[in-house]
């Protein structure tokens, strides 16, 4: 079986800084992979390689093979914008557009040239339902997205991402700016989204990694130290460094 | 005397000094306004605004100058706005941030400080002579557009810089192209700032006299301009012309014209402040 996501000998440089060193990792479809490690270890960089967000940085340079569904995403013929549509991303801080709730979710469809009103309305409703936000906002779809709470805004951002029907969803510390109740909702949501999407999540919260993920990858100083089933990583890590990190003794 | 009480006295002294500075600036402005208003206010009437120029002060009006000014403003905005915003977008969003970019950045800031008469001489050579526009509204507008271009570019860049990066990333991550991101996310979020910059630039252009005299704005135009290739005059030139006349009546006219010009500037600045507040209320991050 072909892996959904695969990284082979990935090396990333920012100018002279060697940010990722020889990373190899395979992810199966419909799983949640947590990336953990201390700040600056390269986990966010790795995450952002999958939707080519690092291309925005002038000094970014990548070597190695990175594939989604067996296709090289850094191949010359890849259309970056079309690729990003297939790989959704949720950011650390909720970042809704200064538009209405409806317009936020419809944005991805509109920029991809879809104008069919009924289709857009249906997709918006379905996406908001998937993001468990529909019941809370169905009466105020045309109010500004800023009127929502932080947790609701983050679920709106998830709905917005789902609206363009990606097959992979990347999450960069999606709950770090939220209160515990909103965090619990996001985690519950991740569980449900696994049915349809392959999810990769960066988190600083060990318990969160333990709760939501199937596999966990531990990064340190740009290297992938250990990658295994989450239960193994948290109960019986093979490498001493991993053990020390997850028990809070460094990092 | 103890250290603490000496500090308290210094503190007090500085408070009064700062207040005196503010008062001085306001008093001068107040004196100017009272002087102008007491001389010119009685002269302002509908006739004064709609009359053509005349050699008799009580019959003379500012109609041609006002028309010329509105023409100049509209043409200048049409030229400078797309150029300035386009250049601002390029420098902020597309241009690589290297040494060349910093060099350009410094020079744009420098351009904003070049004396306006230099722009006039440039306009005279490039637009009036080489482009053969003659001493027309168009030549004047191009010259003023050059003059305010640096202000618009700088304010566009500042406004774009204030848009959170995460918003652009969110748009790009959904498969929007760079242009779609700029058009749908960056520009709507920064438009308040861009507009404010434009209006401030325009209110500077309103008061400019020197470059327009150099490119050949006339002091006496018998009729209001009807097209962009017509000859023209503007309010500051009309005022300049009137204060040089010996007759007392023209000095009164000049005061009245200054009131009109000042009202125009205040109005523009007022609009700028209003737009900024309105936009910032709507778009918060």
Query: What is the radius of gyration of chain B computed over CA atoms, rounded to a whole number of angstroms?
Result: 23 Å
Low-confidence stretches of chain A: none
Strand order of the largest sheet of chain A: 6-7-8-3-9-10
Strand content of chain B: under 5%
How would you state the average pLDDT of chain B, rounded? 88
Query: Which quaternary structure do these chains form?
Result: heterodimer
Description:
The complex is a heterodimer of chains A (251) and B (285). By secondary structure, chain A is of the alpha/beta class. Chain A has ten helices and ten strands. Chain A has a six-stranded mixed beta sheet, with helices on both faces. Chain A has a four-stranded antiparallel beta sheet with strand order 2-1-4-5, with helices on one face. In chain A, helix 3 crosses helix 4 (117-130). The radius of gyration of chain A is 18 Å and the shape is globular. The model of chain A has no long low-confidence stretch (mean pLDDT 91). By secondary structure, chain B is mainly alpha-helical. The model of chain B has no long low-confidence stretch (mean pLDDT 88). Chains A and B meet through helix 2, helix 3 and helix 6 of A and helix 7 and helix 8 of B.
Helices and strands in order:
The complex is a heterodimer of chains A (about 250) and B (about 280).
Chain A: E1 5-14, E2 17-27, E3 32-36, H1 43-49, E4 60-68, E5 71-72, H2 80-86, E6 87-90, H3 101-111, H4 117-130, H5 134-137, H6 150-163, E7 168-172, H7 180-193, E8 198-202, H8 206-212, E9 215-220, E10 223-229, H9 230-235, H10 240-246
Parallel strand pairs in A: 3-8, 3-9, 6-7, 7-8
Antiparallel strand pairs in A: 1-2, 1-4, 4-5, 9-10
Chain B: H1 3-40, H2 46-50, H3 63-94, H4 99-111, H5 116-130, H6 137-161, H7 165-173, H8 178-207, H9 210-214, H10 235-243, H11 248-282
Helix pairs in contact in B: 1-11, 3-6, 3-8, 3-10, 5-6, 6-8, 7-8, 8-11, 10-11
Summarize the structure.
The complex is a heterodimer of chains A (251) and B (285). Chain A has 251 residues and is α/β, with parallel strands linked by helices.
